[in-house]
């Protein structure tokens, strides 16, 4: 979503219609290609606002205030795109990680945004064997 909302929606639509290993391989290749694209600042802000939606009811008033202070700092970034998160974006994501620890959400806990980069994006050479 942070690399471009249009790309996100295209991947989402492809996942809904994928029905073969070839389809999934194509989606994987699309994701790999998008990973090298710059982050689009407007889409980063949109994603941060979207993530806040998972916590807005559960979060304490002080957490809400802190989130919006951080988000407003992010909004003031003068750049349109970047390859690495600016400091204010990193702080905001760290705060969202704190909220996720405080108020676990099963969906967000599976998000690659909050997982260390590991084997999520590795395709096996052959399908897993059935036990």
UniProtKB/TrEMBL annotation:
Start and end residues of each DUF1722 domain: 4-116
Protein name: DUF1722 domain-containing protein
Source organism of the structure: Salipaludibacillus aurantiacus
Lineage: Bacteria, Bacillati, Bacillota, Bacilli, Bacillales
